[in-house]
Structures are given as structure tokens and as C-alpha cells.
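Lab notebook page, bench 4
Experiment: in silico fold of construct C2
Operator: M.H.
Input chain length: 117 residues
Purpose: comparison with the prior construct
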Amino acid sequence: LVGWVFYLPLALVLPPMLYFALDQLNIVYQFWVHTCVVRRLGAVEWVLMTPSHHRVHHDRRLHKNFGGVLIIWDRLFGTFVDEAEAEAVAGLQGRGGGGEGQRQEEVALFGVLPVVA
């Protein structure tokens, strides 16, 4: 379910300008969760999908954190894993501190230079 076919029912019900605005807002939000610059966001992480949660989603060894905007659904249905827990579960100890391997991976995956702490 990718692309316009999935959203077609909404486009048929909502006014076109509202549909367009919501679609653009979703694109901006999805761009934001793929950043490597933002690490942790505190209390916001209890409700919204953040870059930290999305990094867990992209880990090939874990099938967790599926929410696109709201992480609360993953918490309710048991598919949530925090980034710190994911590092322990997937055997990533030592990589979470911004090591050289993590920096190279972020540059390769996302095409950005990570922030050096």
C-alpha cells in the first residue's frame, strides 16, 4: 500500500486544498524522522515517532516501531523498542556513542554529515 492508491479514499472525501496540505505536511514529517542530526527528544518520544525511534525501525535485525507519525500505537500493540534497548538486543553496544562506524553508516544511508558530539 504505497503511494496515491492508499490515499485515494481520503482524496475523495476531503476538500482538495486540505488533502494537499496534509499530504505535504506528512512528506515534511517523514523527511524529518530520517535525519541523523536529532538524537533524543525527551517527553515527545512518548507520543510521536522521532528520529530515534525511526533508526530502530530501519535496523534490519529488528521488526519494530512501525508508526509513521504516532509511536503510541506501537506502545499499545507491543511493537515498540527504544533505541537504547535495541542497541542491547541487537548487540550494538559501543556503537551508540557516535563511534566512527556509526558516522560512516549515517553518511552512507542518509547522505548527510552527522553532528560530532
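Observations: The mean pLDDT is 75. The CA atoms of residues 35 and 51 lie 6 Å apart.
Next step: discuss at group meeting.
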